Amino acid sequence: MFSLPHVEYISFWGELAALSAACLWALGSVIYTHAGARIPALELNLIKTVVAIAFLIPTLLLQGITTPTASPLPLYLLLLSGVVGIGLADTFFLEALKQLGARRTLLIKTLDPPTAALLSTLFLQEKLSAIAWCGILLVILGVAWVVTERVPGVSSSASTGGKSATSIPVWGIICGLLSAVGQAIGAVLSRQAFVQTNISPLWSVLLRLFGALLVIVLWLLVKRYPIGLWIKPLVTDRDKSLSRILGAVIFAAFASTFLGIWLQQTALKFTAAGIAQTLSATSPLFVLPIVIWMGEVVSLRAFVGVLISLVGVGLLLSLG
Which GO terms describe its cellular component (predicted)? Predict the structure, then answer.
C-alpha cells in the first residue's frame, strides 16, 4: 500500500507541506502563464484536468482507498463544486494569467478566503467577527492597490491597436475576480459536502475534477469550439516547441494540481487548519522571486500590496 512517509521526526511537517504547496502553485502559475500565450484557457484547463485525473486514479488504487459510500447529496455537491470551482473558475484563472501575469493573478486569488467567508455567512449562517472583517478589508485593499497599478508593457484596449501601453487590464481583472468568486463558491460547496460525509480528501478531489471535466467538455461542445488550432504552428516549428509546451503543462498539472493539493491535505493533517490555510495562501510571495529572476520589474507598491493582503488572509484564517 502506498502511503506518506513516516515523518514524526519533523516537527513542522504540516507547515513545510503548506509552504511547499504554495511554492508549487506559484511555479505552476508561471508555467501556465507562458503556456497560455499559445494554448487557449479552456483547452489548457482541459489538459491540466485530464492530467491531474490521470495521476489521481492510480494514486487512489495504490493507497487502497475504497469507493465512497456516502449518500448522493454530498457527492453531487462535490461534483458541483468541481463544475464551478475548477471547470469555470480555473478557466477564468488561466485567462487572467494570460492577461495579468502570474504575480497579479495570484494576488487576486487571495480574495478566495474572504469571498468564501462572505458566502458562508450568507448561505451557511456562519458569523464573522470584527477581526475577520478587518482581514477582509485588508485583503481587498492590498489587491486593489496592486492590480490598479499601471504597468508598462501590458496590452491595452483596442484604442492602442494592441500595442504595448501603460494601462489597467480590465478584462484580466474581471477574469481574476470571476475566478476568485467561482473558487470561493466551490470551497463553500465542498465544505458543505464534508459536513455531511467523511469521504476521503483524495476521492473528493477526484469527484471535483470529474465535475470540472464534465463542464469543460460541455462548454466545448456547446460553443463548437475548434480544439487544437494552436498545435499546427508548433508542429511545424523546428525547435520542438510542442513537446516543450506539453511537457511543461504536464509538469505543472502534476506539481500544482495533483501534488499541490496532496501537500495541502497533508498540511491539514499535521497542523492546525488556520495555520495550513494561511501558509498555503503565500503563493504571491513565492512568485515574486520567480518573476524577478525571469526579468520582471516588481515595484515597491507590489511588495507592499502583497504583504497587506497576506496579513489580511492571516487575520481571517487565524479565526478558523
Answer: plasma membrane
Residue 182, judged by CB atoms within 10 A of its CB (0-12, 13-18, 19+), counts as buried
CA distances from 64 to 61, 72, 198, 240, 307 (A): 5, 22, 16, 39, 42
DSSP 171-206: HHHHHHHHHHHHHHHHHHHHHHHHHH----HHHHHH
Question: Which residues, other chains included, contact 262 with Cβ-Cβ below 8 Å and sequence gap of 6+?
Answer: 59, 202
Residue 155's H or E segment, with its range, is: strand 151-155
First to last CA, the chain: 33
Q: pLDDT digits over 261-319, tens only?
A: 778 767 766 665 556 666 777 788 888 888 888 888 778 888 888 888 888 877 766 65
Residue 142's nearest CA partner among 3, 306, 263, 318 is 306
User: What pLDDT score was predicted for residue 6?
Assistant: 46
Give the residue extent of every domain in the chain: 24-317
Taking the C-alpha atoms of residue 238 and residue 133, their distance in angstroms, rounded to an integer, is 55
| Interatomic CA distance for residues 69 and 163, integer angstroms | 56
CA distance 284 to 287: 5
Task: Report residue 154: phi and psi, to 5°.
Answer: -90, 130
How would you classify residue 166: left for phi > 0, otherwise alpha for psi between -120 and 50, otherwise beta? beta
CA distance 138 to 145: 10
Number of other residues whose CB lies within 10 A of the CB of residue 208: 28
Cα angle value 64/65/71 (rounded, 5°): 155
